[in-house]
Amino acid sequence: MKKRFRKIGIAARLTAIVAVILAVFVVPWVWQVAKLAQDKAREEANASMRASTGLLMSDLEVLKGDAARYPAEGTAEYDLLRANLWRDGIDTPYIIRYYDENHKRVLIRSPLMLKYRPATGCCYGIDLSDFSEQSLREMNEAFNHDHDLEPIITVYGRQVKTDTQFVFFPNRIQIVYEEWTAQTPVEETNQFCSDGGEYIGAYIPGKWPFRTDEVMEGYFDALRYLDTELRAIDGENIPDEEWAEVRASKRYVGTFQGMPYDDEVLLATAALVNRENAYGTCFRLMLPITIALYLIFLFLFYKIVRRMVSDPLVDTAREANRVSILAFDEFKPDLNRGDEIGELNRALSEMAATLHTRWDSERDLEDKRQQFVSAASHDLKTPLALIGGYAEAIAQDISPEENARYLAAIEQETARMNGLVREMLDYTRLDRTDELKNRKTLNLTALVNDMLTEYAPLFEKRRLTVDIADGVRIRGDETLLRRAVGCLLENAAKYSPENGRVSVRLTNSRNHLLTVENDCEPIPETELPRLFEMFYRGDKARDRAGGHGLGLAILQKILALHGLTCKAENVKNGVRFIVCNKD
N or C: which terminus of the chain carries fewer CB neighbours within 10 A? Predict the structure, then answer.
């Protein structure tokens, strides 16, 4: 699981974490709102129950009038009392318990009224409350079954007339070919039959006798609730399991109340907790809106994190991959960001610049190595071929004179090869040296004068002009500086013609510290910067008399160690080499 989580993107991870954090706060909040909605629904149910109970108590008081007792069950007065207690618009189930004149307990249950309104005449009400739950379920299914026409209903029982309507208490009901009998027998003194065209509707508006299955289940829940409450009022010990089952749905709130003028009369009422209305006002829309806002917030949070963090990191990774494949010219990170990603991009940019410099340096060094090997191979190939040829001629023992000449040639070529190898080793040694170990303050004036005296034989057939300033000093390695000055003097003598002019000038100016100029043919401008490369001698001078091509390269290395450099330029009738400050 941990490995899978690590494979998920940063935006998805952060969104998941925020989703959990929000859920921790949102779920209790939604739960609290739901609880408030339920409390409101219970308050509304209690208010409805109190209003209905008040009406029932008022009706009972009026209907009893001055009679000493309430009527016995099964009498005409009992039927009239039940009929008059029916009131349209009261949806609070109830049970009224009283004792008649014979001190017999009598129950009146709230009616489940079926309205029957013929084309002409007054309204009839058919009370179905005496039928069992199973019978009501079967009647509901039979009546609401698909029929081409409204089903024919035949009712047998007893009819009671009130001041405003007729109420029918059925003993039997037939719907098409099915028949159901009431739990409490009723004397059959009347009957009527609908022809399928009259209006028949439930007490709860809609299809008869229940609008929906939920309404039907609610009615039966209410009856069970009231029966259990009444048994508890009568002193029966109700098991906890039965109470828990009755109250599990929490659909109803109930109460019982005795009549203030008659202690033997008691009402048990129940009101439906209409959660739908409460949820509609407090919770029904809130839940989907909360979920929608929750998901929208997570979506926007995910997009923002992707835009501000994930996508820039992906771009940074893409740019870093370009560095990994050495595509330095295509590396263009976003350096304008001021956050941590901008710091990362700037660090990558500095790293890429360093790598680019090192890569160019390594590539340049590799090019120089290849040139070095190529030039060294070229310069070593000729003397080796000559030595091989001379050795083969000596092996044939041609003549003592020829052998002596061949041996002298071998010795000469061997000396040339030794000189080349020494110069190569010197250059390699200088190339690996970063600083001078024998640095000290030197009298450069005395050093140059000494070198001119040493190389005086080279200038016997040249016109030498010297301008040496006094007191010129420099910190450096004397051996290396003598070699550098000697290289300049030797090249000036070597490449100037007889009676040619050679000029040597030493000053205290670091911009023109030492100048050596000699008469010769001008060097092409394109070749001047390459004179200080290894083994470069120019096409015209690339012969065995022109040296090895390492002298000026070694000179430049020595000067670089002293913070100096050498540059060449063409002048009238010659070439000038200037040693100056490297900066």
Answer: N
